[in-house]
Design goal:
The chain is α+β, with helices and mostly antiparallel strands. It has two domains: about 200 residues, Metalloenzyme, LuxS/M16 peptidase-like (Cytochrome Bc1 Complex, Chain A, domain 1), CATH 3.30.830; about 210 residues, Cytochrome Bc1 Complex, Chain A, domain 1, CATH 3.30.830. It is built from 17 helices and 14 strands. It has a six-stranded mixed beta sheet with strand order 1-2-8-3-7-6, with helices on both faces. A six-stranded mixed beta sheet has the order 11-12-10-13-9-14, with helices on both faces. Strand 1 and strand 2 form a beta hairpin. Helix 3 runs parallel beside helix 8 and helix 11 runs parallel beside helix 16.
Amino acid sequence: MIRRVLFCCLSVPVVVQAQAAFDRSKPPTLPAAPRLVLPVVLASTLANGVALRVVSQREVPLVQVTLTIAGGSRLDGTESGIASFTSRMLTESAGGKDVNAIQSELAYLGATLSSSATWDAFVVSLNVPRRSLDAALALMADVVQRPSFTGADIRRQRDLRAAGILQRRDQPTALAGLAFNSLVYPVNHPYHRSPDGDSAATARLDSVAVRAFYTRRFVPAQAKVIVVGDISPAEASNAIGTAFGAWSSPAAARRSPPVTASAVSNAAPKVFLVDKPGAAQSVIAIGGPGVPRSSPDYAALVVMNTLLGESFSSRLNSNLRETKGYTYGISSSFGWTPIPGAFRIGTSVRTDVTDSSLIEIFREVRAIRDSPVGVVELARGKAYVALAIPGDFETNGQIAGQLVELDSFGLPLSSVSEMITRVNAVTAADVQRVARKYLPADRATIVVVGDLAKIRAGIEALKLGAVTVLDVGSIVR
C-alpha cells in the first residue's frame, strides 16, 4: 500500500530589512578589552604542613581539587623515569581497591581522578560534583597516601612503558623531541632525557624501587592543595583537613632541593640529522637556550613570540602554511618552567621542501630581528595576548591550573593583572630588542628527522652549520 502525503505550502510574507553597506575589505574594530576580575584566593596551612588555597566559584555545582608536590621528574637521579612511573602507579591500586574498583567508584560518583608528574612536580587532580565531594576526596586520599604498588600492577605498567619506548623508534616527531632535548640540555640537566626513561631503566622498575621513591619524595610539607568550585573556604578547609590532615612523613622522606641548571649555548649553528627511510615528511626542531620566567623581558618575549610563531596568524605559519603550503602548521615557543626551558620552533614539512622550509624559517627569524614590526601587526599581537588572559580563568580547572603555574614561579595572583599592563606597554623597539637578544638565529641547534637519501644533500648545501648524523639507537635506548 502506497501512502500519499500531501504537503501544504503556506504563503508567508517575508520582510527584508535594508542593511547598511559593510566594507569587507577592513577587519572589524576590536572593542576595548574586558575588565579582568581575578578570583579571591584564601590561603591556610594544615598542621602537617599541607598548604591550602581555596577559591569559591558558585556558578556550577562542581569542585576541582588539585594537589601538587614539589619535585617531579627532575628528581629521577640515576633512576631514569621513576618519578613519572610512580605517579602513574598511584591510581592503579590504593586503599585496598584495585584499578577496576577505583574506576567504578569514580564513575558512580561522576568524578574524574588522574595522577601525573611534570618535570617539576607531582600532580593529582580531581574533578567532582559537589554532592559527591566527600566520597571522592576519600578516594583521592587513598591514592595519595595509601598506594599499593603491587607486583602485578608494576609488571603490567612496566611492560606497557617498555612497549611505548620501543614504538618511539617509528615516530619521527618523538625522535625529534628526544634528540632536541638531549642536545640542548647537557647530560647533568634534568630535562636532558625523557621523563619516561629508557628501556634499561624501565626493566629495573619493581615495587621495592617504586615504594622507596614514593616514601622519599611524597612529602606533605611540600604539598599544596588548590580547591576551586562550589564550596566555601570553611567547608573546603574541613573537607581537606579530614582527607589529608593525618598525612605524615616517614623518617626517609626528603624535601626536594632547588635545582639550577642551564641549557647549552652553541658558538655557531649545529645541524643534526636522523635517518627515517621512506618518510613522507621531515620533522624539524630548531632552538636553543630559553629565558627564565622572572626575566624583565617576559612580556616583550611573549608578544614577540606571538608574532613569530605562537598564533595561527603568526609570521611562520602564514609563510610556511598559508603562502608556501609546506606544512599543516608550524609554531614557536619558550619553555616557561621553573628551571628555564628552551626556545623551540617545530614543524613537519613535505620531504621535497625540507631545505626550502629551513630557508623560510631562518628568513622569518632574521626578519623579526632585523626590522621593527609594523603598528598594525604589533597591535594585533598585543591584543592576542592581553585578550586571551581572561579566558584562562573561565573554568574551575583553568583557575586551579593558573594558581599552580603562578605558585611554581613564586608569583602572586596580582601578577596576572600586571601582565596585561606590561603587554600593552610593549613597543616595536622592545620586540626587536628581545628578538635580537634571545632568538638563536646564529647559534641554533637544528634537528631534522627524515629520509636522508632525499634531504641530506639539500640541507648540507645550505651551509647552516656542521652536520652530524645521529643513530636512532643513540636517541631511543
